[in-house]
Write a structure and sequence with these properties.
5-stranded mixed beta sheet; 3 helices; Thioredoxin-like_sf (chains A, B)
Chain lengths: 124, 124
């Protein structure tokens, strides 16, 4: 396999995860982003905060994308306290592919059950 | 405004819209794609079939994207019989923007209520 394009892990940092959040309190999405910034993501994965991924009813949400040859995936219902390891695992497997297509059985169970959408590659 | 990039309107053609579909019958997603192929989409919008956008619980689904400077949007719960005009209107407004951000009040009501996700531009 040739060298793959870098991967972006986008995290919705404005997500309230359906909770009432005081104006000056950190939001669940921001906490998820902060936790991922401390996690062991593979080299070549760029963590990026995004203001609202418009999946507010099923947050917290992330997007995985990576260059013109990979499918893009949107995953939902993630919890900043419980799901960091799942995101790291799923991102690592995604990063290891050239086309973004991780075999179904190799995807974390949460990813299998909470895929909101996938979008085809733009094409090289 | 400078000339914008072309827009892609991706339609999930394998969508069953939750219905039992006989193997040899056209699927709702394929019918939606066929209806859009006959519709008055603006010049510069490319209609493209996709096999499964992985939004199966809330189909039919479409994606709007358009070059490195526009946000990408995923819309759900579309009906091949009722929503073609809505898709044409929303696509036309999206196509008219440089960044993909149509003001909220200018979006079709169905788009406002059935946005599954939005994904930021890759950047020029």
């Amino acid at each position: 396999m040739t060298q793959s394009a870098p991967v972006e892990l986008l995290v919705c940092t404005t997500c309230r995860r359906g909770l009432p959040v005081e104006d000056d309190a950190a939001r669940p999405g921001a906490l998820l982003h902060a936790a991922l910034a401390e996690a062991a993501l593979p080299e070549g994965v760029h963590l990026r905060p995004v203001e609202c991924l418009s999946n507010c009813d099923n947050g917290c949400s992330i997007v995985l994308r990576g260059g013109p040859s990979r499918w893009t995936y949107v995953y939902a219902n993630l919890n900043e306290a419980h799901d960091v390891d799942t995101i790291v695992e799923g991102t690592t497997r995604y990063h290891a592919t050239a086309d973004g297509l991780v075999p179904w059985r190799e995807r974390p169970v949460h990813f299998r059950k909470n895929c909101v959408a996938r979008i085809p590659p733009i094409g090289a």
